[in-house]
């Protein structure tokens, strides 16, 4: 038996054991007693916001790190179980219900999609419309019709051009000697944070672009100019989102880390995107997702300015469920990209720990 076949057999065995275990637990009724259940009796004000990025039909992984890409087949499984077991509402609808003091429908879930991926029109917006479910796309306005790659995407792309060890070695050789106190981490997300901390500036900055130019030369990687044309949405595509019943939300203009900007800079990022997106879709934009969305990426100024600009809701990437007491400008979201259909139901309903 070849090792590939053996690992396939092991994988299906593992999945089958897990599936049957979940089914047995479901039948036993024990799960309803779990202290971690999200939607129990008397918890009708709770809702969960799911955070997707790119939905891709490609079977081969591209340059985006895996939690940022959800295969189409898995996404379709999610839509099927969500439609069957949950009440899927749009973010602004949830806000309106809570504001009016009414009760949310049972097991309310909201679907959101970040960034400007052209595939999302075909593989997210169309399936949503076919399932009759609402969704919100948070789009950085400067990434619409963009020709070059956003610095983050350029970094991910370059990381895949050479073996991982060589990539880390080159990065280490390019940072100031005094900053190299800890070894570079393996995973691409902590690696980017490590690099930015070592350089003393973020990649989405003029210095960051110069660094990426130098990194591209150092790696001898093919140029990334013009790649944006094949991966980001065009103005025409953003306009057509409303044909699918999809809402558009603000994700700032340039997808910069808001906490690294002063108040005027944050206000400009939010207001510029607000104006550009409203002009494209022909209606006011009322929802927002902070770029990156982890606690170090936004601050009190971001929340205050968002409130002043009139947003009804703003999403972070901090995991957890939300309820009537959650600040609507600091909503939690969870990334469902790892879960298959039934696993998603299991995690949303009961979880193995609090969401
Ligand atoms: Zn984003």
Q: Which small-molecule species are bound to the chains here? A: zinc ion
The level of helicity is 40-55%
Quick one: how many beta strands? 9
Question: How much is the radius of gyration in Å?
Answer: 21 Å
- Helix count equals 12
Domains, number: 3
Unreliable parts: none
In round numbers, the mean pLDDT is 87
Structural class assignment:
alpha/beta
The biggest beta sheet reads:
5 strands, parallel
In the CATH hierarchy, the architecture of the largest domain is: Alpha-Beta Barrel
Describe this structure in words.
This protein is α/β, with parallel strands linked by helices. The protein folds into 3 domains: 1-25; 47-146 and 232-348, Glycoside hydrolase/deacetylase (TIM Barrel); 151-227. Helices cover 43% and strands 10% of the residues. The strands form 3 sheets. Strands 1, 4, 5, 6 and 7 form a 5-stranded parallel sheet that branches. It has a two-stranded parallel sheet with strand order 2-3. A two-stranded parallel ribbon has the order 8-9. Helix 11 links the parallel strand 8 (287-289) and strand 9. It is globular and about 55 Å long. The two termini are 41 Å apart. The relative contact order is 0.16. The protein binds zinc ion.
Short description:
Helices cover about 45% and strands about 10% of the residues. It contains 12 helices and 9 strands. The chain binds zinc ion (ZN).
Q: What does the secondary structure layout of this molecule look like, with pairings?
A:
Blueprint lengths: L2 H26 L18 E6 L1 E3 L12 E3 H14 L1 E2 L2 H9 L8 E7 L4 H13 L4 E4 L11 H9 L4 H11 L13 H12 L6 H14 L15 H6 L6 E4 L12 H19 L5 E3 L10 H9 L4 E3 L25 H9 L6
Parallel strand pairs: 1-5, 2-3, 4-5, 5-6, 6-7, 8-9
Helix pairs in contact: 2-4, 2-12, 5-8, 10-11
Bound molecules: zinc ion.
């Amino acid at each position: 038996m070849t090792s590939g076949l053996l690992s396939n057999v092991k994988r299906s065995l593992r999945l089958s054991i897990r599936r049957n275990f979940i089914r047995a637990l479901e039948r036993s009724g024990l799960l309803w007693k779990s202290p971690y259940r999200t939607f129990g009796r008397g918890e009708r004000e709770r809702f969960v916001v799911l955070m997707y990025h790119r939905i891709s039909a490609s079977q081969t992984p591209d340059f985006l790190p895996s939690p940022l890409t959800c295969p189409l087949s898995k996404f379709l499984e999610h839509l099927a179980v969500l439609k069957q077991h949950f009440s899927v509402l749009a973010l602004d609808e949830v806000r309106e219900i809570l504001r009016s003091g009414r009760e949310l429908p049972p097991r309310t879930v909201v679907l959101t999609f970040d960034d400007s991926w052209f595939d999302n029109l075909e593989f997210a917006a169309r399936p949503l419309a076919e399932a009759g479910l609402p969704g919100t796309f948070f789009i950085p306005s400067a990434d619409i019709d963009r020709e070059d790659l956003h610095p983050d995407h350029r970094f991910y792309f370059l990381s895949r051009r050479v073996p991982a060890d060589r990539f880390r070695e080159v990065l280490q050789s390019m940072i100031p000697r005094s900053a190299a106190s800890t070894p570079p981490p393996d995973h691409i997300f902590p690696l980017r944070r490590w690099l930015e901390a070592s350089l003393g500036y973020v990649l989405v900055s003029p210095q960051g672009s110069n660094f990426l130019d130098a990194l591209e030369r150092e790696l001898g990687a093919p140029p990334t100019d013009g790649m944006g044309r094949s991966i980001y949405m065009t103005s025409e595509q953003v306009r057509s989102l409303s044909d699918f019943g999809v809402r558009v939300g603000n994700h700032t203009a340039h997808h910069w880390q808001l906490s690294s900007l002063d108040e005027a800079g944050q206000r400009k990022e939010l207001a510029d995107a607000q104006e550009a997106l409203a002009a494209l879709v022909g209606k006011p934009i009322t929802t927002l997702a902070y770029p990156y969305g982890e606690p170090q990426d936004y601050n009190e100024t971001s929340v205050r300015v968002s409130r002043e600009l009139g947003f009804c809701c703003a999403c972070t990437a901090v995991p957890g469920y939300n309820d009537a007491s959650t600040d609507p400008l600091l909503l939690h979201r969870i990334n469902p990209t790892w879960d298959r259909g039934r696993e998603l139901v299991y995690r949303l309903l009961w979880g193995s720990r609090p969401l």
